[in-house]
Fold this protein.
Amino acid sequence: MKTLSLRGKLLLLFFLTSIVGPFIPLLMASISFRWGWPDLIPSIWWWEKRDVVATPLAWDYILSPVSRIVPALGNTLFIAAAVTVISLLLAIPAARVIARENFRGKSLIELAFASPLIVPEIAVGIGMYLVFVSLGMQGNLLAVILSHLVPVLPYLIRVLVGIYAELDQSMLDQAELLGASPFQRFLKIELPLLMPGVIAGALFAVLISTNVFLLTFYMGQGQIETLATILFSKLSGGGSLDPVSAGLTIMVSLPGLLFLILSSKTIREDVFAGGISRE
C-alpha cells in the first residue's frame, strides 16, 4: 500500500482539523459542568458532579420534553425529506433541458435559476412572506417547505447539469433504436447514470434545508419549530456558549453528518457500472 508523503500527511491533518476541530469544544461544553472565562477547558466536568446530576446538564435538558427538541427534530427531518424529493422532481427535468437543449433566452433562464444564490436571503424571505400572507399560506409546513426550495434548487440544478453534460448520449440513442420508450430510457439508463449527482444533490438539499433559519422563521410564523429556530432562539440572547447551546449545535449538525456518512458509502466508483448492469 502506498504511504502518504509528509506534505500529504500535513494536508490530511489540516483538513481533518478543519472538519473535526469545531466540534471538539462543542462536545467538551456539552459534557461540562462549569466552563468559564478564561479557562481553556472546563474547570469542572460533569462526571465530577455525578452525585449532583446523574446525566450531563445539556443532554438532560435536550432529551426532556421541556426542550421541544424531539418534535423540532421531526419537523426538521420531514421538511428536509420533502424539500429533497420535490427539488429532485423539479431539478432533473430542468437540468436535462439546460444541459442538452439550445434555445433563445437560455442564459437568462440559467441566471434566473442562480439568482437565489446572489440575492440576500432576507430579501427573498420578505418577498415570499408578503406573497404567502396575501395567499393566507403563512404559518404552516407547506409554506416552510416551499420557501426552502428557493435556496436548495439552484445547487441541485447546477450539480445535475454537470452530470447531464457528461452523459453519453450514444447509449440513449442505441436504446431508442432498440425500441425503448422514453420512460424506459430514463429509468434504465439515465437515472442510474445520474445517481451520483442525485445523491450529491440530495446531500446539498438536506444540509441546506436543515440549517435554513430566516425563511423558516418568516414562513413558520413561530408555529413551526425546527432545530435551527430553537438553536437561534437559544443563542439570540448572546453570552457565552453554555452546555445546552453546545448540545443543540451538535443536534443541528447530526442530520447532515448522518446523511454525509450514508451518501459516502453509496457513492462509489462502481455506481455507474452497477446502475447499467441492473435489470
In short: The mean pLDDT is 82. Residues 69-100 form the longest helix (32 residues).
